[in-house]
Specification:
Rossmann fold; 2 domains; 427 residues; globular; 12 strands; 5-stranded mixed β-sheet; alpha/beta
Length: 427
């Protein structure tokens, strides 16, 4: 069916990630017993905005046109929620796919949001801080009628951070005439940001490791862990694994990887990256390429970098018994089939990395109430929500004899479909 949609005048969604998202969705439609009309509706985003705007460089002699996107997949569940990414290859199809995945993710963990995603096609590594601020403020102005505390709440993503969200919040607040912290999440705590937000995705992911290991009968203590991608998610996932007593034997970023069979000092690696913005030059272990990292002998693999990193070409080399997906869409459908045949226990991204949006939900609630929780309360509630969602998805997986990704999608898509059927069609 997804082939027909892309052929029927909707080629603007065309991207590898969007096709993968549709393949996942179509695989689940029959398993979930979805109404045909609802299934057709959920295959495409409900709203999409494309903007272009001028961006002046620091020397003020060059003005560049920059393209930005914001996609809202489903509006039936409440306001939409999703990150803003800055990357040189951002496109509408990728953003649409990520918005769709965010819808399922929010539904799986029971958050009152539809999925959204946004991005600006710019390489954040090639611009200065003042240039990034000007881009952010102008982009916010361009999409200002699309976002709001009760409409659509952006958050950080690849290439953006808490400072980016602070600029977005300030720009929005200037336009509406009063401070509005609930318009974005992932802000600094001084502006109404939630404590524990930065580490939420990585730590939320690793909170599922004990349950996963118990399910397959594998001890956590001493387990060998490989982390692909040492950004925000990868760093805190690696740190959580390190603190659990695992041996993190390999980590990597765009500059390459480091391998040490005896285990790496993760706090030291994080301190190095905080100073240099890269693993390059960190003196530990031996160098390894990102490609070779997937073939390392290990017990747990954490893909926490980019989409499509695990493919049909390298899935056969993976020795891990558990894969915890920290990145969005890191495993292609072809690789999924291979991993399933090998008996690898895959905790899918739509469940595994939901910790970030869960703590973003906490931040949004706190901003609306002007009442803030302690870090202990936030961490406790995060673990409770993640554990409950994992157990519910695992029960579906066992009862129906399906893999965890399919079970998670069944749970999420079914919840969205039920909401749409309950609301009906207007007019």
């Amino acid at each position: 069916m997804h082939e027909d949609i892309l052929a029927d005048g909707l080629r603007e969604w065309e991207s590898p990630l969007y096709r993968e998202s549709l393949k996942q969705f179509d695989r689940v439609v029959d398993v979930a017993g979805l109404d045909d009309n609802i299934a057709e509706r959920l295959r495409v985003p409900q709203r999409a905005l494309i903007v272009s705007f001028p961006f002046r460089h620091d020397d003020y002699s060059e003005v560049q046109s920059v393209y930005g996107y914001r996609v809202q997949h489903v509006l039936s569940m409440g306001p939409t929620k999703g990150g803003i990414r800055y990357a040189a290859d951002v496109n509408l199809g990728e953003v649409a796919a990520l918005a769709m995945l965010m819808t399922w993710k929010c539904a799986i963990v029971g958050l009152p949001f539809g999925g959204a995603k946004g991005g600006v096609r710019i390489d954040p590594l090639t611009i200065s801080r003042p240039e990034k601020q000007r881009i952010t403020r102008r982009f916010t102005s361009e999409i200002i009628n699309f976002i709001g505390p009760n409409k659509d709440i952006p958050a950080p993503d690849m290439g953006t951070d808490g400072q980016t969200m602070a600029w977005m919040m300030d720009t929005y607040s200037q336009q509406v005439g009063h401070s509005e912290p609930a318009v974005v999440t992932g802000k600094p705590p001084e502006l109404g940001g939630s404590v524990a937000r930065i580490e939420a995705t990585g730590r939320g992911l690793l909170s599922l490791l004990p349950g996963s290991a118990a399910h397959i009968g594998m001890p956590v203590e001493g387990a060998r862990v490989v982390v692909h991608g040492f950004g925000n998610v990868g760093q805190y996932a690696a740190l959580a694994a390190f603190e659990m007593g695992c041996k993190v034997v390999a980590i990597s970023d765009v500059s390459g990887g480091i391998y040490d069979q005896a285990g790496l000092d993760i706090p030291a690696a994080m301190q190095w990256v905080a100073r240099t913005r890269s693993l390059e030059g960190f003196e530990a272990g031996e160098p390894i390429t990102n490609a070779d990292l997937f073939g390392l002998d290990c017990d747990i693999l954490i893909p926490a970098a980019i989409g499509g990193a695990i493919t049909a070409e390298n899935a056969g080399d993976i020795t891990a018994r558990i894969i915890l997906e920290g990145a969005n869409g890191p495993t292609t459908s072809g690789a999924d089939d291979i991993l399933r045949d090998k008996g690898v226990f895959v905790v899918p991204d739509i469940l595994g990395n939901a910790g970030g949006v869960t703590v973003s939900y906490f931040e949004w609630v706190q901003d609306l109430q002007n009442y803030f929780w302690s870090e202990t309360e936030i961490v406790g509630r995060l673990r409770e929500i993640m554990s409950r969602a994992f157990n519910e998805v695992l029960s579906i997986s066992i009862d129906r004899g399906i893999d965890l990704r399919t079970a998670a999608l069944v749970k999420g898509i079914r919840r969205v479909a039920d909401a749409k059927l309950a609301r009906g069609v207007f007019p």
